[in-house]
Specification:
Pfam families: GAF_2, PAS_4. Keywords: Coiled coil. By secondary structure, the protein is of the alpha+beta class. The protein has 3 domains: 120 residues, Beta-Lactamase (2-Layer Sandwich), CATH 3.30.450; 173 residues, GAF domain (Beta-Lactamase, 2-Layer Sandwich), CATH 3.30.450.40; 52 residues, no CATH class. Helices cover 45% and strands 21% of the residues. The strands form 3 sheets. The chain has a 6-stranded antiparallel β-sheet.
Length: 430
C-alpha cells in the first residue's frame, strides 16, 4: 500500500528515523563532541558515538544510563533528561559539572549539553538525543587565568614570598574537585636540602618533620623530584619504596598519594618542589599534571623574583655598611689627625718653654751666698741648686738645701760640682 502524498506510513517513518540516526552517527561518529540516542524513561543507551561511550557510556549500550554510570545520579545530568522526556521540550545545559569514575581515577569534567526529545510517527516522545561538548579545559583555563592574574599581581607588587606561596597553595586546593593538600618546599643555596615554604593544609608536625629534608634518589616524592629534576608521581604511599622512611609519618598525617614537581629556575638550577598530596591513592589526570606545571612555573617566577630582591637588598645593605665604615674611618682619621696636631702644638710650646727657661737660667748669675737662709739670710757659699715641680729654683748651702728637701715636696737638687741629687745623697762627709 502506497501512502498518500504528504503522509507517512509507519514503515516510512521508521526508515526516515533510521537514516536520521545514521546521519547523526556519521556526523558525530569521529567528532570530539558527545552524541547519544536514549530511549524510554529509563534512558536506555541505544546508540552513541565513541566519544560518548568513552566519556559517559563506558562502552556499553542497551542498558539504562544510570546503570552504566551510577555516579551521574544527582549530578545535574539525569534531571534534564527526565525533563526533556516528560515535557517534550528541548533543554540546554551550560557548564554542567560531572565527576566521572570513582576512586583513584575520578576526574571532574564540564560539558555544554543539548537535550532533544525523540518522537515516533504519532509525535509521542520515545526518548532523548543528547549532544554534548566538553568544556573542561576552557572552564579550567578560565579559572586558572583568574588565579594566575591574582598571583602575578602579588608578585609584581613584591608581596612577601610566603604570602604568594601560601595564596598559590590555597588557590590550587580550591581549584581541584577532589581534596588536595599542597606543599611548596624551597631549596637551600647548595640544593642539598629542602626547607618549608608553604603548606596551609598540612599538619604542623608533618611540615616540621620534612623541613630540611635532603634531596636524593628515593627520599620521598619531593627529595627524589629535586634530585632528578623531573616530576615524581607516587600514587600509593603505602606501597611505594620512595616512602619507606616516611610511611609512618604520612600515615599519621592521613596522606595516601603525593605527586611532586621540581621548581626550576630559568638556568635549570633547583629552586624547590611543588607537591600535591591526596587522602586516598590517586592517579593524576591531564588537568592535574597541567595544573602542576603551570603553578610550578608561577612558583619559579615568585622565588626567582624573591631571590633577586633579596640579593638587591643584601647588596644595598653591604653598600650602606661600607659607607658607614668609610665614614667612621674618616671621622677617626680626622680625630687622630687633630689629636696629633694638638700634641705637636703642645710639644712645640713645651720645647719653646724649655728653651726659654734654659736661656733664662743661663742668663742668671750663680749667686755667691746661700739664698735659702730665710729672712736672716745666710752668708755661707751657694754650693747647691734646689728646684721644685713648679719651676721655682734657688741656690743654697748644704744645710739649708737639706732643710728645703725635708720641708718642700717634690724638690730636687742640681749641682754642677756634685753631679745631681744622687751624688748629693751619697756624698761623703768632708
Amino acid at each position: 500500500m502506497t501512502a498518500a502524498p504528504g503522509q507517512y506510513s509507519s514503515s516510512t517513518a521508521s526508515g526516515v528515523a533510521g537514516r536520521a540516526e545514521e546521519d547523526l552517527r556519521a556526523l558525530f561518529g569521529q567528532s570530539i563532541a558527545l552524541f547519544a540516542s536514549l530511549s524510554g524513561p529509563a534512558h536506555l543507551v541505544e546508540t552513541a558515538n565513541p566519544a560518548f561511550l568513552a566519556t559517559v557510556g563506558a562502552g556499553r549500550t542497551g542498558v539504562p544510563l544510570v546503570e552504566v554510570r551510577p555516579e551521574l545520579a544527582g549530578q545535574g545530568f539525569i534531571g534534564p533528561l527526565d525533563q526533556a522526556y516528560r515535557t517534550g521540550e528541548s533543554h540546554t545545559g551550560r557548564d554542567v559539572r560531572l565527576v566521572l569514575d570513582a576512586g583513584p581515577h575520578a576526574r571532574e569534567a564540564f560539558f555544554d549539553f543539548t537535550y532533544e526529545p525523540r518522537r515516533d510517527a504519532e509525535g509521542s516522545v520515545i526518548g532523548v538525543q543528547v549532544i554534548g561538548v566538553e568544556t573542561t579545559q576552557v572552564k579550567h583555563a578560565q579559572q586558572l587565568m583568574v588565579e594566575q592574574i591574582a598571583l602575578l599581581e602579588q608578585i609584581a607588587r613584591q608581596a612577601p614570598l610566603t604570602e604568594v606561596l601560601d595564596g598559590m597553595a590555597r588557590c590550587i586546593e580550591n581549584l581541584t574537585p577532589q581534596e588536595v593538600l599542597v606543599s611548596v618546599l624551597l631549596a637551600d643555596p647548595d640544593g642539598a636540602h629542602l626547607r618549608h615554604g608553604a603548606a596551609p593544609s598540612l599538619p604542623d608536625f608533618y611540615n616540621q618533620a620534612i623541613d630540611g629534608i635532603a634531596t636524593g634518589e628515593g627520599v620521598g616524592s619531593c627529595g627524589t623530584a629535586a634530585h632528578r629534576r623531573e616530576p615524581v608521581i607516587v600514587t600509593d604511599i603505602t606501597t611505594d619504596p620512595f616512602w619507606a622512611d616516611f610511611r609512618d609519618l604520612a600515615d599519621r598525617a592521613g596522606l595516601a598519594a603525593c605527586w611532586s614537581t621540581p621548581i626550576l629556575a630559568r638556568d635549570g638550577s633547583l629552586l624547590g618542589t611543588f607537591a600535591m598530596y591526596h587522602r586516598v591513592p590517586r592517579v593524576p589526570q591531564d588537568f592535574d599534571l597541567a595544573l602542576a606545571r603551570v603553578f610550578a612555573g608561577t612558583a619559579a617566577l615568585a622565588i626567582e623574583r624573591h631571590h633577586g630582591e633579596q640579593a638587591r637588598r643584601d647588596a644595598e645593605a653591604r653598600a650602606e655598611a661600607a659607607r658607614a665604615e668609610l665614614a667612621e674611618a674618616i671621622r677617626t682619621e680626622r680625630e687622630l689627625r687633630a689629636e696629633a696636631e694638638q700634641r705637636a702644638t703642645a710639644a712645640a710650646e713645651l720645647t719653646a718653654q724649655v728653651r726659654a727657661a734654659a736661656d733664662l737660667q743661663a742668663a742668671l748669675p750663680h749667686p755667691e751666698h746661700c739664698q735659702l737662709g730665710g729672712a736672716n739670710g745666710c752668708t755661707a757659699p751657694a754650693e747647691l741648686k734646689v728646684a721644685d715641680s713648679w719651676g721655682d729654683a734657688g741656690w743654697g748651702c748644704p744645710t739649708h738645701v737639706e732643710e728645703a728637701i725635708v720641708h718642700v715636696r717634690s724638690a730636687f737638687i742640681a749641682s754642677e760640682e756634685l753631679g745631681g741629687l744622687t751624688a748629693y745623697i751619697n756624698r761623703r762627709p768632708g
